[in-house]
Amino acid sequence: MRISLANLSLVTLASIAAAQSNAIPGTDVNLYDVYSPTIYGRRGPAYPNGEVAVGFGHAFCNAGTVHVPWATSPTTGGLMTDVHFKIAFMLARESNGRMVQVKVSENFVKHSRVTYNLGSSQCGTCQSGPTSTFRMGCYDAYTTGFNGNRFNLGPSSELDPWTGSWNPVGSYFDRGDPAVAGPAASDGTQSLTNTQINTWDALKNRGVIPESELSQGGTFYAQVHLVCEGEPVANRGNNQLSELFPITWSGTAWQAGTPSLPVQGSVLNRWTGSVRNTAGNGLDDGRFLVASKVTGPVNGVYHFEYAVHNIDNARGGASLKLPLHPDAQLTAVGFRDIDGNPLNDWTWSRSGNELSFMATGTNSLDWNTIYNVWFDATVAPTTSTVVIDQARVGPGALSVVVPAEVPNGALSAAVASVGTGCFGLSLTSTRPVLGTTAQITTSGIPAGTPLGATILTLTPAPAPIDLTVIGMPTCFAYVLDGVNEVWLNPVSTAQVPLVVPNSAPLIGVIVGTQSISISPPLTPLGFITSNGALLMIGAQ
User: Fold this and answer.
1) How far apart are CA 195 and CA 190, in angstroms?
2) pLDDT at position 72, please?
3) Per-residue pLDDT band at 283 (split at 50, 70, 90)
């Protein structure tokens, strides 16, 4: 039987949905609006070194074929229930070719513990149905006043975003803030009270953001992520929504404009010029989205940008491992998380044909979070896969494999200077690109020099050789032997062309070069040497 790629994708998604431990077929909640932005207060030093909190509302409807269970909490006896939606918030910024999650010091999620079934919606006619359910075709809408109510805001770390489950016993709501003493902190009854909340400033537990993150400029997006217990993963494409979110400093206060231009899915779907792919941990845990953007080459160097969004993976990510051409040169390697603490930044290393970014301490990539890495490389991108190791034990595989652009394509031509010359003699070269002629230039040739040579070899010296012992103090040899391109009676510079055939097998070949001149009486022997250079032949 012939199976198309589209059919195979549907089969795969259906398998994942069927295997979810708590999946309820027909469950499909559609998040369709983000609105009502609010800037909460301000604290700290003068602008732009303080903090503000940002909040926004949202609207959603039941687009499925079943009524979704939704129990009001607290229930009879005051016991909290898990059967309700959880809402996560994110502010992202695109600037200078990079899409990042704006750094936050606090960013709690909303527990939507009451359903209203406000009426018919774009999902259809609001149907009648059992109490304690979000009924088919109905919608609910929450202003920032609802979403910003701290009585219903709890830590995202307490949720399992894959199943949508939450244990109220011993939770933040159960303990209170400050935490109560004794059995009341773990009896499943809410100890967090409005009396406690009224002692807080206007920012606590909301999306607290450093002003320095907002004052950088760029395009800001507000994202809402709705977590619904029992929703099959195949129906979760409409659980996230981002909207353009203007935010400006008036000179005395921050002002929020009206959100517009909604786009479903991860906010990374808005990243201009990016390539995006998503994968989850088999049948057992949620998804990571890896977005990449590659620009260049500029003088043979490509710039690689990655943004990794943990959408709903409960175990979190502890690494990002990319295939890397073993001969690629790397520069300008960087990492960004959202906590502003440089002491827990992920570290990077390369080994053979792999580039790894590894979490430190407990700084895992958890759900509703985007981390970024970037670097420059002398290699073109190609399509392959990256590996994200899981941060915590749990069901499923140890790693998640996601398709992505990676730095493992054709090598770029590159030139690397080796060591230093003596008595001012120096050597430079243009890049040896296939089908071109590289120009090797020797500069700083002393006046009166009758001749010299540029040596070209395929076997550079493994280590510099000190030439003091043969009467050339402060001079070193960086090549052992090779072809000598002689230049006569130079003025102050000499140039030697290196013709590079347009032949793919030459990619990655390294040519070593160094110049030597007869320039008495600078050394007892009468010779001086330049620095060396390694010329790697490349495709571009």
Assistant:
1) 13
2) 80
3) confident
SS3 label, residue 53: strand
By CB neighbour count within 10 A (0-12 exposed, 13-18 middle, 19+ buried), where does 217 fall? exposed
Dihedral (C-alpha) 477, 299, 326, 461: value to the nearest 10 degrees?
-10
Partnered with residue 301 across adjacent β-strands are 298
Convert the pLDDT of each residue in 312-328 to its tens digit: 999 999 999 999 999 99
Q: Which two tokens stand for residue 97?
A: 């070719």
User: C-alpha angle with apex 131: 128 to 137, nearest 5 degrees?
Assistant: 35
Taking the C-alpha atoms of residue 297 and residue 306, their distance in angstroms, rounded to an integer, is: 17
Q: Which tokens go with 14?
A: 């259906």
Tell me if 58 sits within 8 A of 243, measured CB to CB. Answer: no
The token duo for 527 is 């010779």
In 3D space, the residue among 517, 418, 530 whose CA is nearest the CA of residue 474 turns out to be 530
- What span, in angstroms and rounded, lies between the C-alpha atoms of 367 and 400? 14
Question: Using CA atoms in the order 141, 147, 149, 153, what is the torsion angle rounded to 10 degrees?
Answer: 130
Name the residue type at position 260.
S
Structure confidence by residue, pLDDT tens digits, 263-273: 999 999 999 99
- Could you give the domains of the chain? 27-162+200-272 (no CATH), 274-409 (2.60.40.1170), 414-536 (2.60.40)
User: Which residues lie across from 532 on neighbouring strands?
Assistant: 418, 514
Quote the distance between the C-alpha of residue 101 and its chain's center.
Answer: 9
The token pair that represents 298 in the structure block: 């500029």
Query: Residue 14 above 50 pLDDT?
Result: no
Q: Degrees (nearest 5) of the Cα angle 257, 260, 264? A: 135
In whole angstroms, give the CA distance from residue 498 to residue 488: 18
CA–CA gap between residue 244 and residue 494 (Å, rounded)? 58
**Interatomic CA distance for residues 28 and 143, integer angstroms:** 22
Q: How far is CA 254 from the centre of its chain?
A: 28
As a whole number of angstroms, the distance between CA 78 and CA 370 comes to 37
Q: Quickly count: other Cβ atoms within 10 Å of residue 116's Cβ.
A: 13
**C-alpha–C-alpha distance, residues 319 and 308, integer Å:** 11
Torsion sign across C-alpha atoms 197, 201, 205, 206: positive
| DSSP 8-class letter at 365 | B
- What stretch of H or E contains 146? helix 144-147
The sheet that has 330-336: what strands, in order across it?
275-281, 285-298, 301-310, 369-377, 330-336
Cβ 8 vs Cβ 2: under 8 Å: no
β-partners of residue 94 are 99, 219
Long-range CB contacts (< 8 A, 24+ apart) of 330-334? 330/355, 330/375, 330/376, 330/377, 331/301, 331/375, 331/376, 331/377, 332/303, 332/374, 332/375, 332/376, 333/373, 333/374, 333/375, 334/372, 334/373, 334/374, 334/375
